[in-house]
Design a protein that fits this description.
Chains A, C: Pathway: Cofactor biosynthesis; molybdopterin biosynthesis. The complex is a heterotetramer, with 2 copies of chain A and 2 copies of chain B. Chain A is an alpha+beta fold. Helix content of chain A is about 30%, strand content about 35%. Chain A is elongated and about 50 Å long. By secondary structure, chain B is an alpha+beta fold. Chain B has a single domain, classed as Roll (Ubiquitin-like (UB roll)), CATH 3.10.20. Helices cover about 25% and strands about 25% of the residues of chain B. Chain B has 2 helices and 5 strands. Chain B has a 5-stranded mixed sheet. The chains are: A alpha+beta, B alpha+beta. At the A-C interface, α1, β2 and α3 of A face α1, β2 and α3 of C.
């Protein structure tokens, strides 16, 4: 049972949450990122996610380690989907369990922020009026304005 | 020999997923300059680089057998 | 499909989350409260939840309305289980969807706080060395130190 | 007639889930005092009260047909 996974199959949040359940935990917080139809008045028809799979898993494991260091009583699982996704389908599920709920909420929100900085996964938007790789345009968030930290 | 990987828009621009070239000893910066000339890849300056699946920087020197991946701004989640 | 429910059956978080999914929402945050084995060094064998069912549903609807007022772009569903529950079983699931994730996290955490203040559900602990209705002892949290607001 | 509901510890103490009595016109406070004398229920002063499924306070006057529920500190979630 891998805690950090890239898959091309639909994700069930309960499956990911099941990986972190344990007798010591009284709280499980799950985040599901789903495909939204409207963004800034523009309609999305579908998305395509591409990953550098082996590195993406490594980076998710790194994030898991960061979370372990900051919230030692948590347990984390992440599954990210790749391939073609339609409106309301789930792209990512993050599950965090902890004895008391506060750290599960905090760690969960930290993880989604870090995924968006660190994990080599790309989203191509198919709008009604065109396509684009998200994030890969000067007007959005080039790395110069705060990208992932550099590791030597 | 080194192995170069392209993703997302860069993959579409390069028209290929990977490239095997004799560039051991180059820095990442020199490799980017060479790719820019040879393949007209735009925006490499806005692209992160990973060496053997860990983020690295432009000064890193590439060793024989390394896998270098160019990582456009990510947008997972 | 009731958004606010009391049930004596096991709860699947995905079922509750499914009630709040919609094309406008890009985020679904789910909280599952599960039965923890150890609390302050004391071992729980099982729990028994009892509810004033009709009022509990009304109070959950009230909380849903509060959330709607504070985070207008969210949608909320809550299911609380009653009866006998064993270690790691799920007592409550709260699901909140929103276009952007921040309000889903915030609203979700607000809801669990409010449930613990307002919703007439009681938990009886069966420890190795005795039983007690939780919260119903002077040393825990009598209402004089901050209970639910009064409504006339 | 009014309908009184007991839950959790109070239910165990009273040995019953409900009680039908002729107490319309009483305030909640007066009803609590009467229950304390009649049934020796402890801790009613730490107990919230709901009238017809909405929280109310000790000064509220009970009408005929009301359902009064005593709500010990809740512990759901």
């Amino acid at each position: 049972m891998a805690l950090f996974e890239i898959t091309s199959e639909p994700i069930a949040a309960d499956t990911v949450a099941g990986k972190v359940k344990r007798p010591e935990a009284g709280a499980v917080v799950t985040f599901s990122g789903t495909v939204r139809e409207w963004t800034n008045g523009r309609r999305t028809l579908k998305l395509e996610y591409e990953a550098y799979r082996s590195m993406a898993v490594k980076q998710m494991e790194r994030i898991g380690q960061e979370v372990q260091d900051r919230w030692p009583d948590t347990r984390t699982a992440i599954t990210h989907r790749v391939g073609e996704l339609h409106i309301t389908e789930t792209a990512v599920v993050i599950a965090v369990s902890s004895p008391h709920r506060r750290s599960a909420y905090e760690a969960n929100e930290y993880i989604i922020e870090r995924i968006k900085e660190l994990v080599p996964i790309w989203k191509k938007e198919y709008w009604e009026d065109g396509t684009a790789w998200v994030g890969d345009q000067l007007e959005t968030h080039p790395y110069s304005k705060g990208g992932p930290p550099l590791y030597d | 020999m080194i192995n170069i990987l392209f993703f997302a828009r860069l993959q579409e621009e390069a028209g290929r997923e990977s490239l095997h070239v004799e560039k051991a000893g180059y820095t990442i910066r020199e490799l980017k300059e060479w790719l820019d000339e040879e393949y007209r890849l735009t925006g490499l300056n806005r692209t992160m680089t990973a060496r053997n699946e860990e983020f690295t920087n432009d000064d890193a020197v590439i060793a024989d057998g390394d896998t270098i991946a160019f990582i456009p701004p990510v947008s997972g989640g």
